[in-house]
Specification:
The complex is a heterodimer of chains A (277) and B (164).
Chain A: E1 7-9, H1 14-24, E2 28-31, H2 37-42, E3 50-53, E4 63-65, E5 69-73, H3 78-83, H4 85-90, H5 92-98, H6 104-109, H7 112-118, H8 125-131, E6 135-140, E7 143-148, H9 149-152, E8 153-155, E9 158-159, E10 166-173, E11 180-186, E12 196-203, E13 206-212, E14 219-220, H10 222-229, H11 233-243, H12 254-275
Parallel strand pairs in A: 1-3, 2-3
Antiparallel strand pairs in A: 4-5, 5-10, 6-7, 6-10, 8-9, 11-12, 12-13, 13-14
Helix pairs in contact in A: 10-11, 11-12
Chain B: E1 4-10, E2 13-19, H1 25-32, E3 51-54, E4 57-60, E5 73-75, H2 89-96, H3 106-119, H4 125-131, H5 143-163
Parallel strand pairs in B: 1-5
Antiparallel strand pairs in B: 1-2, 3-4, 3-5
Helix pairs in contact in B: 2-5
Classes of the chains: A alpha+beta (277), B alpha+beta (164).
Chain lengths: 277, 164
């Protein structure tokens, strides 16, 4: 319950935040909503000398709806994702998934950037962002670079982000109108990470499929999407089953997770197909 | 670690104190300010017994450092009484519909319900249950909490109509 002490910083622009990160190296971490980091600090599984609070940085806020793409600031909360009408119209899959994340209080604080940068395979947004083919913008001492969500995740808690970089914005292509979508999540109770979850988009002769918490990273499968685009649901499920690699934990043994994964994926496909026009 | 000078507004009053940045908001409220309605029921951010209203959001104060809350406006269950000190509508309805037993989750429940009804003044039963899902209760089985909140919504809406 009791975290170790730290020095607290609250910079008001990205450059200052990056320079504090640079100055203190491994000893510094950024804090966004704090709803993964603080719990880890309270269990003393995370311990840092310097905490850099991003809440005053306006450049990390806001949702912009363009005709081809939406961009979302890293500090946008789950609550804002759910209540933003323009976003719900442009990319309705995001609201559907966000409502399956955590609980109301956590959604007021937890941010989309924290969710995708955390690196915990239990988080829902990473698989979702891979399904949507999102791009993450990273700001560091050498400037800004973009990394595709599909290239971002390396292993549990290991991502393409360097220690001195901050994930600043997320860009998501707006799906063509009539695209069917679904985020289906099996969980033990409200607020639990998924036993298995699937993000599916289908329409206009294309499809994209990703799954959550069934490996040490989210899994986006190109062959699964290609099979689904061709109308081959069984082929899609079997390609995805070949790509996942779950481990046994309190949510069940490996065989059970594979079974649930297939069920959840089929449900997501059904619902996405029923919404496609 | 050195202490920082913390200032915030709690239940309409400006308050201040000295605390290390790592101090959790719940501990600052309970131990520095003696506002002991919000409770601690877990160390994993699940139970919601510590829920307060922070700048118009329901927040679990066990998962906010006091440094993050610097300069903000808070409401706790103590601030949800009427101006004359009598029970607020939610508090009255929890009493009337037996929405509490041991009372340990109640401050968090009522503070969360307060924000829920601001955002959705006419919730369905399903919306109440989903909207209260960040708050765990060991005693009631939730049924009477749902009734209490639905009754509070009806009362508040009737009051609003009468005022118009």
């Amino acid at each position: 319950m009791i975290p170790a002490g730290f020095e607290y910083h609250r910079p008001s622009d990205i450059a200052s935040a990056v320079s504090i990160l640079q100055e203190h190296g491994d000893e510094a971490r950024v804090i966004a909503g704090g709803h993964s980091l603080i719990p880890m600090m309270k269990l003393r599984m995370a311990d840092m000398g310097h905490l850099i609070d991003l809440q005053d940085i306006d450049a990390l806020k806001g949702i912009e709806i363009g005709s081809d793409a939406v961009t979302i600031g890293a500090m946008v909360t789950q609550h804002e994702l759910i209540t933003h009408e323009g976003l719900s119209n442009a990319v309705p899959l995001i609201k559907e998934a966000a409502l399956l994340i955590a609980d109301p209080q956590v959604r007021y604080m937890g941010t989309v950037g924290g969710n995708v940068a955390n690196g915990d395979p239990g988080n829902d947004m990473p698989g979702l962002m891979q399904c949507l083919n999102a791009t993450f913008e990273l700001s560091g001492p050498d400037g800004v670079r973009a990394v595709a969500a599909r290239e971002f995740y390396e292993a549990a808690y290991f991502t393409a982000r360097d220690d001195e970089e901050i994930l600043t914005r997320i860009t998501i292509p707006v799906p063509a109108s009539g695209t069917g979508y679904a985020y289906e999540k099996q969980k033990r109770k409200i607020g639990d990470y998924a036993t298995a979850a699937a993000a599916v988009m289908i329409g206009g002769g294309t499809a994209s499929v990703a799954m959550t918490n069934l490996a040490d990273t989210p899994i986006w499968s190109d062959p699964a999407g290609a099979a689904l685009a061709a109308g081959d649901v069984d082929g899609c499920v079997s390609a995805m089953m070949g790509a996942i690699d779950p481990v046994a934990d309190n949510r069940g043994p490996i065989e059970f997770k594979k079974h649930v994964a297939a069920v959840i994926l089929r449900r997501a496909i059904d619902r996405a197909q029923s919404r496609a026009r | 670690m050195s202490k920082m000078h913390v200032k915030m507004t709690v239940n309409g009053k400006e308050v201040e104190g000295l605390a290390e940045p790592r101090t959790l908001l719940i501990h600052f409220l309970r131990e520095n300010l003696n506002i002991t309605g919000p409770h601690i029921g877990c160390e994993t951010s699940h139970c919601g017994a510590c829920t307060v209203d922070l700048d118009g959001k329901s927040v679990k104060s066990c998962t906010v450092f006091v440094a993050q809350a610097q300069g903000k406006e808070l409401t706790t269950v103590e601030g949800l009484v009427n101006e004359d000190g009598s029970l607020g509508v939610l508090q009255e309805m929890f009493r009337e519909h037996h929405g509490l037993q041991c009372g340990f989750c109640t401050p968090g429940m009522i503070t969360r319900a307060h924000r829920l009804l601001q955002e959705n003044p006419t919730p369905t039963e399903e919306e109440i249950r989903f909207g209260m899902a960040g708050n765990i209760c060991r005693c009631t089985g939730y049924q009477n909490i749902v009734k209490s909140i639905a009754a509070a919504a009806d009362t508040l809406n009737a009051q609003k109509e009468a005022a118009e």
